[in-house]
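@channel sequence for tomorrow's demo:
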Amino acid sequence: MSLTRNQPFDMRGWLLGLSALIIALDRITKHWVSGHIEEGSAITVIPHVFRISHVLNGGAAFSMFTDSPHPERTRWMLTAFSVLAAIVVLVVLLRVGRRITMTSLSMALVLGGAIGNVWDRVRTGTVIDFLEVHIIHYHWPDFNVADSAIVVGGILLLLDSLRSKEEPNA
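structure tokens (generated this afternoon):
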């Protein structure tokens, strides 16, 4: 099939490639941290602001559910939720991914991030977090590349939903 000016180029492959890039960056950075920083330790990058740490997170975002009385059940519930979310996001991405929009871009970022973290959960039962930020006296919970992609994707989706849609001519 040839493309004409009226037929937009299908961008789903590029968007899935972005998801794969997020997964690869997440795996590479987590592997590097595991090999170079002892668990519980950190390398200071900017004193009192930013460190590269090595933290194992058995819970969800912001370490929620870490102190669960049933850690194995929590692990598999979080894994099942993440897999289900990734499937839903993939379906949405395949539907809206013909063009690059804020929605399709956000779905690609969220998909890559979700798969990056579920990979850890399935393999080891925990997620490696390593980006540690301090803002004045506040310590932001440690996070990783996958978490960053999910948050940026969520923000893009929110911004897209707040944009005013073009009104049809009356």
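heads up for whoever presents: Residues 34 and 126 are 13 Å apart (CA to CA).
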